[in-house]
Amino acid sequence: MRQRAITTSGVWFLWINLVFCLFILGRHYFSPIQQIASITQSYPVLEVLMGLILAITSSVIFLLRMAPDQHAEWLSKCLHVALLCISALWVVCFYIFLVSGDSRIVFPFAALLIFTALISLYFDTRVLLSFTLPIWVVILVCNFVYPSDLTVLNAVLYILLAGLFESGRRILCGWFILAVRSEHENRDLIHQLQTLANHDPLTGIANRRVFHLLLDKALQRQEQCSTPLSLIMLDVDHFKKYNDHYGHQAGDECLIKVAKCLEEATRSTQDVAARFGGEEFIMLLPDTTAQQAIEVAKRIQQNLKALEIPHAESPVSPYVTMCLGIASWTPDISATRLIAQADEALYRAKAQGRNQWQLSHTEE
Ligand SMILES: Nc1nc2c(ncn2[C@@H]2O[C@H](COP(=O)(O)OP(=O)(O)OP(=O)(O)O)[C@@H](O)[C@H]2O)c(=O)[nH]1
């Protein structure tokens, strides 16, 4: 967040430095000669200093505009180094003004620079202080080393400005922290809502709503490139008896294990295992032929068998088993029809003794 903020408002601050630089250069040409006569001797040095600031600011602005990722870490580091250099150059510039007795420009100018730095860099105390501290120090020291009629007044003004700067920094920092905190909270909230909207709260796998969305999307893709696609509908055998025998809590744990087993049987990130409702599950297998779907179904049966979840009341096995119905997409078939075909195969698996898979009749 800080990184993003610095590369965004840093550009504005670089433009400010650039404009100030042009002002210093222009001042020499547009001010009455006597007003700046005292610094005429040092003018070539000032020209070099302003030239350097112009070169640094314009190159960093160019870099920030051209970078593919404007919030990259290296860019914010580069900006930080550039600001340090610019600060050092301003320090020398102000020193020249002060020793030349041209202090009238230094205080308002330094104050402007310090307060614009506060506006653009307040969220990063390290960068803000590394830019402003050298400027604070040089004007403070010069005010006493090269006293003028206004030394005391300047000192009071200096303390007043420092107080304003620090209180302003604290207020702005407070707002920044508040904004960052609420952005994090909002992000967490969106993540929680997405999880609730897309996942089954018990098993953690996709819910029926997401399954339908993903199936519709997959079928839209099928219209363009007719790759195979299969569905497997699954139902835990005699789950009511399991619940009645072991209790609802154990039933929930059993469903969680079954869901995990389905997820482990998927092969690619495209495959989706979802809870369809109650003890019914469904799997979407894009790029999968009926034959490959049979392999997945066999793998699920093996994985479930390996889990050995006891089911004392099941007439088909001492362990929890499942019925599986497989259907494969054929051109012009709707999502509802495809699900109905998988469901029909599932009911045939139940009718033929459970603990088995069956292929939809259209595949045979
Ligand atoms: N523990 C638990 N049980 C559930 C949940 N959702 C549905 N059930 C139970 O699942 C059982 C489903 O019963 P049936 O539809 O008769 O299915 P079945 O007993 O498996 O019979 P067949 O499907 O014919 O093998 C019911 O007892 C439901 O209460 C759940 O989230 N947790």
Structure commentary:
InterPro entries: Diguanylate_Cyclase, GGDEF_dom, MASE5, Nucleotide_cyclase, Rev_trsase/Diguanyl_cyclase. One of its GO terms (molecular function) is GTP binding. This is diguanylate cyclase. Its cofactor is Mg(2+). It catalyses: 2 GTP = 3',3'-c-di-GMP + 2 diphosphate. 68% of the residues lie in helices and 9% in strands. It has eleven helices and five strands, in the order αααααααβααββαβαβ. By secondary structure, the protein is an alpha+beta fold. A hairpin with a 2-residue loop joins strand 2 (272-277) and strand 3 (280-286). The longest helix has 48 residues, at 151-198. It folds into two domains: 2-190, no CATH class; 208-363, Reverse transcriptase/Diguanylate cyclase domain (Alpha-Beta Plaits). A five-stranded mixed beta sheet has the order 2-3-1-4-5, sandwiched between helices. The mean pLDDT is 88. It binds guanosine-5'-triphosphate (GTP). Guanosine-5'-triphosphate binds next to strand 1, helix 8 and helix 9.
